[in-house]
Design brief:
Number of helices: 6
Radius of gyration: 16 Å
CATH architecture of one domain: 3-Layer(aba) Sandwich
Strand order of the largest sheet: 5-4-3-6-7-8-9
Helix content: 25-40%
Distance between the termini: 34 Å
């Protein structure tokens, strides 16, 4: 179930769902999603669906990974990217192959340890990771061209706005369970502009770290 044909079938589904960026599709074709999930779920690795990774967290649906990444690549510079919610490390790995530098924050230490191992396996050397509260971002490496949030706050933390450089973009699911929308926020000279992309379903962005 991890064959090239299985992967190509996923890419066909992404195209049918509206993903057009050739670089994103190529990276997702060549990124082994099966290494980011438990072996017991291996047969579903290339289904276009979210899957559990433990601790109440999920690996995002490939369509959502592709959609968020495509939007960011096509709206401006992506030299320095902050990811809030490393999770399995799959979105991190996709980003690392398309942008300059990825700084990724994860509140659950056990997930971060696994993600680090997977990123090393793929020989991706432009990723730094930290066990930290995602609400706080990673101020010492900011400001960022891009902030990508992979868990849903009911409101975006003020600290994340403060770490987005002028001209930068933040993409984030926002809202309570069952009423979340994917938002693209652009930091302009006059403040912040927000565009709603589509309805989504993410795990909540929780405070603290462990």
């Amino acid at each position: 179930m991890t064959s090239q044909r299985t992967r190509e079938r996923l890419i066909s589904r992404l195209r049918e769902s509206g993903i057009r960026n050739k670089r994103v599709l190529e990276v997702m074709l060549n990124t082994p999603r099966h290494i980011f999930i438990d072996e017991a779920l291996g047969s579903r690795a290339y289904d276009d669906t979210a899957l559990p990774i433990g601790f109440g967290q999920t690996i995002s649906q490939p369509y959502i990974v592709a959609r968020m990444t495509e939007i960011l690549l096509e709206t401006g510079a992506c030299d320095k990217v902050l990811e809030i919610g490393t999770g399995s490390g799959y979105q991190t790995a996709v980003l690392a192959q398309l942008v300059g530098q990825v700084y990724s924050v994860e509140r659950i230490g056990a997930l971060l340890t696994k993600a680090r191992r997977r990123i090393r396996t793929l020989n991706l050397y432009n990723v730094r990771m930290k066990n930290f509260d995602g609400h706080m971002g990673w101020r010492e490496n900011g400001p960022y061209d891009v902030i990508i949030v992979t868990a849903a706050p009911e409101e975006i933390p003020a600290e994340l706005f403060a770490q987005l450089k002028e001209g930068g973009r933040m993409i984030a699911p926002v809202g309570p369970n069952g009423k979340q929308q994917l938002n693209l926020i652009t930091h302009t000279a006059n403040g912040y502009e927000c565009a709603v992309i589509e309805d989504v379903s993410f795990v909540p962005l929780l405070p603290g770290n462990r």
